[in-house]
Specification:
The chain has 328 residues and is an alpha/beta fold. The chain has two domains: 179 residues, D-Maltodextrin-Binding Protein, domain 2; 131 residues, Periplasmic binding protein-like II (D-Maltodextrin-Binding Protein, domain 2, 3-Layer(aba) Sandwich). The protein has eleven helices and eleven strands. The longest helix is centred in the last third of the chain and has 21 residues.
Length: 328
């Protein structure tokens, strides 16, 4: 008899074949819920409404490092994005470089917002801007009322003010904020407000250089599962991982197929082929070792910024032995 599990993720092509049953996890019968990722994050964080869940890497890190954590991760990465495009500034504030952000008022949707964790860490370590030298504000991106979803222990000297009745989009446009760090472009930028611009308009070139120098390919969302499942069925973790891996392999095979246009985007295969040359044999690697620079960097940033309860190693946030070699 198969073990019945509920899985909740957004709609990703690299999950498609697993979600649709074209790829199976041995011994598992999956009921798959496809929802928006903000709804998934909130409902799993507060209520644990399903067994396996896509989760913000920042929120996952806060929960998995609790002393009594009831979740563990799979080294499966739903979403990965470089985030130098995510810093927006008000044109009238005279901000031309990262160093100019010192002493400024900067908004984030949540402190435990993965894109912001990466960019705050970069500002702190590479941009020369201590986090305590910034006046931090938390508010919803385009809708008022967004809240923090995990407990925080802010670093000494860091000030964070919640503004539940306002939006980052409105405050950056009005000049009430000097800058914002947001994964999703604010409406004021999308609607081409003349005063809302990216700090790094040439972000793709910056991100490619960053990857070449660091080998960090930022992970945004991971897959989490309830630990209790593994108490009775420790085999579940690797069987799920294998299914996610095969589903992803098929997705990349579709992208790289030069014979047909499977996606309505011109030259996508050509671009993917160039990216494969940059990233090596694996465009979107799962697992631990291939992602060690990224995992270690993020875990350090999350701890420094008062999100993780301890400085964890990659091996501590995934099931023991999850990547045991099985080649013959």
């Amino acid at each position: 008899m198969s073990l019945k599990l509920t899985i909740a993720t957004s709609d990703y092509d690299h999950f498609r074949d697993f979600r649709l049953g074209k790829v199976a996890a041995e011994g598992i019968e999956a009921t798959w819920l496809t929802l928006g990722h903000h709804e998934i994050f909130s409902r799993f964080t507060f209520n644990r409404e399903w067994d396996v869940s896509e989760l913000s890497f920042a929120k996952f890190t806060a929960q998995v490092t609790r002393a009594d954590s009831d979740i563990i991760g799979l080294p499966v990465y739903a979403s990965r994005l470089f985030r130098f495009a995510s810093i927006y500034v008000n044109r009238g504030k005279g901000i031309k470089t990262a160093k100019d952000l010192s002493g400024k008022r900067i908004g984030v949707p949540e402190w435990a917002h993965t894109a912001a964790v990466y960019m705050r860490g970069w500002l702190m370590h590479e941009g020369g801007v201590p986090l305590a030298e910034i006046d931090w504000v938390q508010a919803g991106t385009n809708e008022a009322g967004r809240i923090e979803k995990v407990e925080l222990s802010l670093p000494k000297g860091v000030k964070l003010t919640s503004m539940p009745d306002k939006t980052l989009s409105g405050m950056i446009a009005s000049g009430e904020l000097d800058a914002v760090i947001i994964a999703r472009p604010p409406n004021s930028f999308r609607e081409k407000h003349p005063d809302v611009v990216r700090l790094f308009p040439d972000y793709e070139a910056i991100e490619q250089l960053y990857y070449e120098q660091t080998r960090v390919y930022p992970i945004m969302h991971v897959i989490a599962l309830r630990k209790a499942i593994l108490d009775d069925a420790p085999w579940v973790a690797r069987n799920l991982y294998n299914a996610f891996e095969e589903s992803k392999r098929r997705s990349i095979e579709r992208i790289l197929d030069p014979a047909v246009s499977r996606y309505p985007v011109p030259w996508l295969t050509n671009y993917a082929t160039r990216m494969q040359a940059m990233f090596g044999s694996e465009l979107f690697p799962y697992g631990i070792e291939a992602n060690r620079p990224t995992l270690e960097l993020f875990l350090r940033y999350a701890h420094e910024q008062g999100i993780a309860h301890k400085l964890a190693t990659p091996e501590e946030i995934f099931p023991a032995g999850i990547m045991a070699p099985v080649k013959i």
